[in-house]
């Protein structure tokens, strides 16, 4: 008689319950999306899991949630290692935090007695400085959007909003028109922890946004409603997604003949320029939506040596003799 292969355990049903729990906690849509993606990719890994033939007595694929045949630390370490090899330490670190939250929820819900990740440590993150966008690249990028067409008005406004507020991709993108106040020059964004804050912007951005809003009304052929998405696509005339914004910036970079810019680089560039011009750190924390002063050091690391050299030129003890 041929032995049947045990069916791998599927965490799909638990994942769906967990996602519902996250939404019930009123977490931001982007946070829920990140968590759900991490567990979804783990589910695929476990369903396709094959023990490492080079490791003696390697654990087989889990056929239960816990117990001898359940999900163990070895499975999770294998998954995190695989992620680091395929992607990056930063991505693996993000998945680690999401998955630890998932298994802690399983314990809280009494689906498990102990988390398989309870004694695991997150992967170490290398000190990687996010590149600051040079002034000439910004000028070329905005020049690529110069024009009076709807896309030109929209893309200029998006880029200016990123540069002038230091807001995250999801914070700028997933907004409705009623969250924009052109008179006070603020965009009310929804940050981490589902906390809304006013992100101020300057006069040049206000002009760019005003031009875009007038172009938008013509584009959709009617007066704008407060609940309309802030950003519209050019063809389907529906809400522009974070993926659509990322694709737009990639396309505009190619048109400008500059290296690819990730939307998060605008955030680091904003923090860098604020520090260069000796902006107040408490004000920077409020604008960026930070609650920990550790973030000042993390974002201040980008181009930190450049700022140090600039200050040394002003404060050089030798030059003051």
Written overview of the protein:
The N and C termini lie far apart (93 Å). β1 (180-181) and β2 form a beta hairpin. The protein has 13 helices and three strands. It has two domains: 12-108, DNA polymerase, domain 1; 135-311, hpI Integrase, Chain A (Orthogonal Bundle). The longest helix is centred in the first third of the chain and has 20 residues, at 89-108. It has 321 residues and is mostly helical. It is globular. The mean pLDDT is 89.
Features:
hpI Integrase, Chain A, 2 domains, single chain, 3-stranded antiparallel β-sheet, 13 helices, mainly alpha
Question: How would you briefly describe this protein structure?
Answer:
This protein is mainly alpha-helical and 321 residues long. It has helices spanning 12-24, 29-47, 73-86, 89-108, 135-144, 150-165, 169-173, 203-220, 242-256, 263-276, 281-288, 294-300, 304-315, and strands spanning 180-181, 186-190, 196-200.
- Average pLDDT metric: 89
Low-confidence stretches: none
- Just give the CATH class of the largest domain: Mainly Alpha
Shape: globular
So how many helices?
13
Q: Percentage of helical residues?
A: 40-55%
Name the CATH superfamily assignment of the largest domain.
Answer: Intergrase catalytic core
- Distance N to C terminus: 93 Å
Order of helices and strands: HHHHHHHEEEHHHHHH
- So, CATH architecture of the largest domain? Orthogonal Bundle
Structural class by sheet pairing and helices: mainly alpha
Largest sheet: 3 strands, antiparallel
Query: What portion of residues belong to β-strands?
Result: under 5%
Give the strand order of the largest sheet, numbering strands 1, 2, ... along the chain: 1-2-3
CATH fold-level topology of the largest domain: hpI Integrase, Chain A
How much is the radius of gyration in Å?
24 Å
* Assembly state (oligomeric): single chain
Tally of distinct domains:
2
Q: How many beta-strand segments?
A: 3
């Amino acid at each position: 008689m041929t032995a049947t292969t045990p069916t791998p355990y599927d965490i799909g049903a638990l994942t769906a319950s967990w996602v519902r729990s996250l939404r019930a906690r009123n977490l931001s849509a982007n946070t829920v999306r990140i968590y759900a993606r991490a567990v979804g990719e783990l589910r695929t890994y476990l369903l396709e899991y094959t023990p490492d033939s080079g490791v003696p007595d390697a654990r087989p694929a889990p056929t239960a949630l816990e117990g001898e045949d359940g999900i163990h630390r070895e499975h999770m370490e294998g998954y995190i290692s695989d992620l680091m090899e395929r992607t990056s330490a930063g991505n693996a670190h993000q998945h680690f935090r999401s998955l630890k939250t998932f298994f802690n929820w399983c314990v809280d819900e009494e689906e498990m007695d102990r988390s398989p990740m309870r004694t695991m440590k997150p992967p170490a993150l290398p000190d990687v400085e996010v590149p600051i966008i040079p002034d000439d690249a910004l000028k070329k990028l905005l020049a690529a959007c110069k024009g009076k067409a709807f896309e030109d008005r929209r893309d200029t406004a998006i880029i200016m909003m990123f540069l002038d507020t230091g807001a995250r991709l999801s914070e700028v993108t997933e907004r409705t028109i009623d969250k924009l106040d052109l008179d006070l020059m603020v965009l009310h964004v929804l940050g981490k922890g589902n906390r809304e804050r006013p992100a101020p912007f300057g006069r040049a951005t206000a002009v760019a946004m005003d031009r875009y809003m007038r172009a938008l009304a013509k584009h959709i052929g009617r007066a704008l409603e407060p609940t309309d998405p802030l950003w519209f696509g050019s063809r389907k005339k529906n809400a522009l997604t974070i993926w659509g914004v990322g694709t737009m910036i990639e396309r505009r970079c190619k048109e400008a003949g500059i290296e690819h810019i990730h939307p998060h680089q605008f955030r680091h560039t904003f923090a860098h320029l604020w520090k260069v011009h000796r902006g107040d750190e408490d004000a920077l924390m409020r604008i960026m939506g930070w609650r920990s002063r550790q973030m000042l050091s993390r974002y201040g690391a980008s181009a930190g040596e450049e700022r140090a050299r600039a200050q040394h030129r002003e404060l050089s003890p030798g030059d003051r003799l």
